[in-house]
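Q: Give me the 3D complex with pyridoxal-5'-phosphate.
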Amino acid sequence: MKYADRTNFMKASEIRELLKLTEDPDIISFGGGMPSPHSFPVKIVEKIAKKVLEKHGPQALQYGPTEGITPLRELLIKRMEKTRNIKCNLNQILITTGSQQVLDLFPKILINPGDYIVVECPTYVGALTAFNAYQPNYIPVQMDEDGMKTHELEEKIKTNKDKQIKFIYTIPTFQNPDGVSLSLERRKHLLEIAETYDIPILEDEAYSELIYSGKPLPAIKSFDKRDIVIYTHTFSKVLAPGFRLGWVVGNEEIIRKIAIAKQGADLCTNMFVQFIAEEYVRSGLIDKQIPKIRKMYKRKRDIMLKALEKHFPKGSSWTKPNGGMFIWVRLPEGIDTKEMFADAIKAKVAYVNGTAFCEDGSGQNTMRLNFSNTDDNRIEEGIKRLAKLIKERL
Ligand SMILES: Cc1ncc(COP(=O)(O)O)c(C=O)c1O
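A: Here is the predicted complex, encoded as structure tokens.
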């Protein structure tokens, strides 16, 4: 088979490969990025699905508009204004097959081979997987406890002035993988940079509803007067990732281009699932479910933070996220988490090595720990196993 050149850039996600090793139920896995199955409103979905079939049966089983069904888009417009102070009209929102589809369609309409994308370092590996197919170059920008270092970003933009920097990808709220949030000051600075250098921002807020402590920070999109921010969100963390339902907000021209690209990808998003989500939001069930999810994940986060404090060796540090699903751990220099992984599997514990999220291959001594998908009573045991492994290497 003579494959297209672009396949040379398409790397298998390290995480998906690693996860195959963690199917053994004795392994305590902090590796995947999955919501807890206990967060899924199974009974509610059962009731809603029945109602949808009774009310909208044939329509829910038919093809639908590429932009998504109007009632769901209208509800999301109202909800985003209420919860995130984001204002848009019907021509500025499109329903997608997961927010992952936005991470594919957005570069599809913007990136020529060799163009540049700014990414946080570390960043969501699924975004890199999607972007890679369009053969971009990257400008990685380091993170600290206040999110992307925007001064570093500006310097890098200045030194790459002659390059086609097509967009800046950021996960400002409870970032995947490192859990931290971009500070208010930096949110403003980031937007200012985007405006000054005329580079759009792709703002991915997949985790913003999962807040457990601290004050909520505004979406960058909420103070985007020049419509330079493209905003994406998802039902995956507050309803069910298996539904594959997300959405994107942006100026009308971009949404139109994305709609055309989406026509080529899948014609429309699953109609049945859109009707279910519409009922879930309209009936207010979403607002009853989210506090339950927050309570469950807050508890898990606290158990993990306490266990890290108790068991991890001196010289290690980790983020203390106010929300989301992840803690990012930095181990003493010299420990290579990728190399340690095979021993971790033998010790029946799993994580994802930090280099998987770093486009430039940095982060050898870092790892991502997921706390949402492990039973409360196994979290401390998993951390203990990891700590033992690390101590053996010191
Ligand atoms: C930061 C981020 N963005 C987007 C996605 C894609 O999510 P989905 O396609 O389920 O909406 C994920 C999934 O974990 C994620 O972590």
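A quick observation: Residues 33, 98-100, 124, 126, 171, 176, 204, 206, 234, 236, 241, 246 surround pyridoxal-5'-phosphate (CB under 6 Å).
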